[in-house]
Amino acid sequence: MSGNTSDLLSLKQRLKLVMQPDPHAGPGGCYQVRSLYFDTPQDRALLEKIDGVNIREKFRIRYYDHDTDTLHLEKKSKRNGLGNKQAARLSREEAQSIVEGRLEWMAEGGRPLVVELYA
């Protein structure tokens, strides 16, 4: 066994003592994540991330393990190094309409996060 392999096994054993496995992970402790990020035409969210801006936000649509029946609109916020995430469920049709630029419905849905992305 190489040094890297033995180090990995040792680290895994030590982490098991202080961490809980992700409850969403399947066999082997893995799952796939698909994300579609939104940004301004000037790439504001990307540039703020690169520049290390202390107060920033980004929106994305995300789903896990090919389950397009469970889609989420998420907003990640970072304030002085502390992260926060808000989420709202989206139907497949709602997500597709956002991607296609059909946005009028978003202003009236009564879901604050959807309305915020629309604004």
Q: Care to describe what's here?
A:
This protein is an alpha+beta fold. 33% of the residues lie in helices and 29% in strands. It is built from four helices and four strands, in the order αβαβββαα. Strands 1-2-3-4 form a four-stranded antiparallel sheet. Strand 3 and strand 4 (82-90) form a beta hairpin. The longest helix is centred in the N-terminal third of the chain and has 16 residues, at 3-18. The mean pLDDT is 91.
Helical proportion, percent range: 25-40%
Uncertain residue segments: none
Whole-Å distance between the termini? 56 Å
Query: In what range is the share of β-strand residues?
Result: 25-35%
Widest β-sheet, arrangement of strands: 1-2-3-4
Main sheet attributes: strand count, strand direction, barrel closure: 4 strands, antiparallel
Strand count = 4
The class by helix and strand makeup works out as alpha+beta
Principal-axis shape: extended
Q: Topology of this structure?
A:
Layout: H1 3-18, E1 33-38, H2 44-51, E2 55-64, E3 71-79, E4 82-90, H3 92-99, H4 112-118
Antiparallel strand pairs: 1-2, 2-3, 3-4
Keywords:
single chain, alpha+beta, four-stranded antiparallel beta sheet, extended
Could you provide a short overview of the structure?
The chain contains four helices and four strands; from the N terminus they run αβαβββαα.
